[in-house]
Amino acid sequence: MLVLAVNVRSGGSRATADRLVERCAEHHPDVTIFSEYRDTAAGERLRDRVRRTGLEYQAWTAGHRGNGVLIAARDRFDGIRNPFGLADDEYPDGVLLAHFERLDLFGVYLPGQDRKRPHLRCLVAAAQRYNDRGLDAACIGDFNSGRNETDIEVNVRTGRIVDEFSTADLYAQLERYWTEAWLAANPERLEYSWSLFRLDPQYEGRSGWRIDKAFVSRSLLPKVRSAEYDHAFRRERLTDHSAILVRFDV
What is the distance between the alpha carbons of residues 246 and 26, in angstroms, rounded to a whole number? Predict the structure, then answer.
């Protein structure tokens, strides 16, 4: 199973949405997770274009105008919106669960700053439960969080903490239970999955953040075959995020 996740940038642009979907389809994913999805006319168009690529089964955070998640797959799954039962003022559309026969897949768009603390606390608790039961699960998407020392380019370049994630403490707790797949596959590499969006194709920013991640449960970790970024999504100005691709042997 190949899972691709990409942030579509503020619900997706009419000018770039079709090409973004085509770019995703070039990888032939079995599951695609779109974060910053919005349940609008643009979101309906995105779902239609994705369905045409063979990802027939879909679930999305519906009935709202803010950023959420769309999951589309080749195989049937049960979609569970707001799986942690968060209150209306806790950004309940930040997590969408896709329950497949042999895998639970959490698609995420975690909101900025401390608004994501309830989501991370719930993910930490869920990670413990899945590990205790020996079940395969993964959480993939835009976390808007990470390690201060390695996931913020300005910190790496200066060798000191110039900027920091407000939820780095809870992110570290999640790492105690689930493994971050890209980091496990690429322990010596430094790459960044987000940078300031500029239409100028010659623009090369030096303030990147690695915030698009894939965490896997202990039982799923041996089944991870690869984890990589596709930075062409950013270089081609389709969005401000790179896509992350993880292949599982499930």
Answer: 15
Residue 205's pLDDT is 60
Q: Is pLDDT above 70 for 200?
A: no
Structure-token match 């974060």, residue found: 35
Task: Residue 248: name the closest of 222, 212, 217, 229 by CA.
Answer: 222
CA distance 16 to 105: 27
Domains and CATH numbers, the chain: 2-245 (3.60.10.10)
CB of 128 within 8 A of CB of 116?
no
Q: Measured between alpha carbons, how far is 239 from 199 in angstroms, rounded to an integer?
A: 10
Q: Count H helices and E strands in the chain, helices first.
A: 7, 12
Find, among 192, 121, 126, the residue nearest to 155 by Cα: 192
pTM for the predicted model, two decimal places: 0.95
**What secondary structure letter does DSSP report for 45?**
H
215 neighbors 95 (Cβ within 8 angstroms):
no
Rounded to whole angstroms, the Cα distance separating 178 from 106 reads 13
Query: Phi then psi for 157, rounded to 5 degrees?
Result: -70, -35
Q: Is the pLDDT confidence value at 202 over 90?
A: no
Main-chain dihedrals φ then ψ at residue 159, nearest 5 degrees: 75, 15
C-alpha–C-alpha distance, residues 239 and 94, integer Å: 19
3-state secondary structure of 162: coil
Token digits of residue 170: 């809870």
Q: What is the rounded distance in angstroms from the CA atom of residue 247 to the CA atom of residue 250? A: 9
Question: What are the tens digits of pLDDT across the range 64-108?
Answer: 778 999 999 999 999 999 999 999 999 999 999 999 999 999 999
